Amino acid sequence: MVLALLVGAGAGLGAIAFRWLIKTFTSLLSGHSDYAAAGHAANPHAPWLGPWFVLLAPVLAGLAYGPLVHRFAREARGHGVPEVMYAVARRGGRIAPQVAVVKSLASALCIGGGGSVGREGPIVQIGSALGSTLGRVVKVAEDRMKVLVACGAAGGIAATFNAPLAGVFFAMELILRDFTAESFGMVVLASVTASVIGRAAFGNTPFLHLPAFSVQHLSEYLLFAALGVLAGAVGVGFTRVLYWIEDACDFAWRGPEWARPAVGGVLLGALLLVLPQMYGVGYPVLENAVDGKYVIGFLLLLLVGKIVATSLTIGIGGSGGVFAPSLFMGAMLGAAYGTAAHHLAPGVTGPVGAYGLIGMGAVFAGAARAPITAVIIMFELTGEYSIILPLMTAIVLATGTSRMLSRDTIYTLKLRRRGIDLDHTPPTAPLVGVPVGTVMEPVPEPLNETLPLAEAAAALTRSPHGILPVIAADGTYLGAATARTAAETLADGAHDATTVAAIAHLPHPVTIGTDLSAALDALVSADGAGLPVLDDGRTRLVGWITHQSVLTALHRGSAQASA
């Protein structure tokens, strides 16, 4: 708990420092607090250049952060979240301590110099690096190290967005990819701590203000559903364009990697000269779209422009997140969709801003496939509950559409392109490829379903593992009974006539062909020290698997490897 609080405080302070760096570099390189809202204005520091200064800003920023990333922390390149996911899944939560500093400077320079990326991905990597560093300093166990990394990620999101719940679910759904009571509690502590610190610095107001909203007619849910499907497709399209442009940049560039951001900055600057709204994160432009200040054609232009600008920024070696760009794209898509719907059916549709906000959550869900995080963060960004039902409708459909169109998310595809699949155990693991049938033990004496519970308790007491299978009269497997359940049931004295079938439960199914690595996971979570092994039809009992069986298989594998 103390470590979680410290990591949350560190992530909160890191978010404050990171936002200050972005503001400083943006002001230095563009002369404005946020150039995306300035149109084609000149840089007051170099007024003689006029709007042409945007050709130089990405180049100067690239000259600064390119060598920095190449020399000290190459994992700071790109959007950051996949690297944190990989560190948790494959490296025991170990992240190099210099990543926090390098990522802060590189991302702030990239965004300040016009890079069309977000600050959320970097702050996740920064907070995670802080959690990992603290864990290594105090020498915590590997499982605790992973939780501290998730605490840092949650704290970063919470402080940056003033969204403590979204920070928690982002860390649990994307970083840990697991929900357990202990880790959830620690992540909540870190998120709340970071959020309190963030609110002290940035205030306690919603990130976006939603106009008065209500569903005009039940048929409007069909419009929300169609928007969700469309947003899911846009999220997948963004993912594919991002990596296509990155591949094109990899193919075209033959010079030193440290110079790549500066040289590629010329292309980015040319795009910014045409569409200055792509400069940096672009939140003012997003707010204008939600407020209904743009026409449909310009909204679609901004949508395509953001996809290209973000992909190009990442492709040339920039450092920044894809979370905020996906929200930007969703706002443009939703506002354009809402405007068109309002023209076609003015008596049915609500305000354009509501569609813009729903599009934000749906495109992010389509790209990242994190529906819980998408719902929570849009609710916290607006502080408005009335939008929750249409928001959930669109996000669920966007997630389903994304899953139909693509196997990977915008985060996991980056790892899969490196040959890393987080959903599968590494092939070098000693238990991979070993079927349960090769190491299972004989079936212990089963309990007939009609056996009185008092007699079954005596048999369970004598069993070496405190668990026995329960079968029907025809030999069909019904489940397993444990000594613990029998004792708890008999304790009140009212179940002496109960049969053992009443306490039989169905453990996680393990069949004769199940991989031993998967069977070990089932054993760890089982109530008892053994599990029944079933035939492929899962109706007949053919063997028994225990921890001793797994150890035997490990011993045999080690002996064969040494021989």
Structure notes:
The protein is mainly α and 563 residues long. 60% of the residues lie in helices and 4% in strands. It has helices spanning 2-30, 57-72, 81-90, 98-112, 120-137, 142-161, 164-176, 181-202, 220-252, 260-274, 283-290, 296-315, 323-344, 352-368, 371-382, 388-405, 412-416, 453-462, 483-490, 516-525, 547-562; strands spanning 447-448, 467-471, 477-482, 530-534, 541-546. β1, α18 (453-462) and β2 (467-471) form a beta-alpha-beta unit. The longest helix is centred in the middle third of the chain and has 33 residues, at 220-252. It is elongated, with a radius of gyration of 28 Å.
Alpha-beta classification: mainly alpha
The count of β-strands is 5
Main beta sheet: 3 strands, mixed
The parts where pLDDT drops under 50 for at least 5 residues are: none
User: What is the strand arrangement across the widest sheet?
Assistant: 1-2-3
Q: In angstroms, what separates the terminal alpha carbons? A: 46 Å
Along the chain, the helix and strand elements come as HHHHHHHHHHHHHHHHHEHEEHHEEH
Shape summary: elongated
Q: What is the beta-strand fraction? A: under 5%
Mean pLDDT: 85
How many individual helices?
21
CA gyration radius, whole angstroms: 28 Å
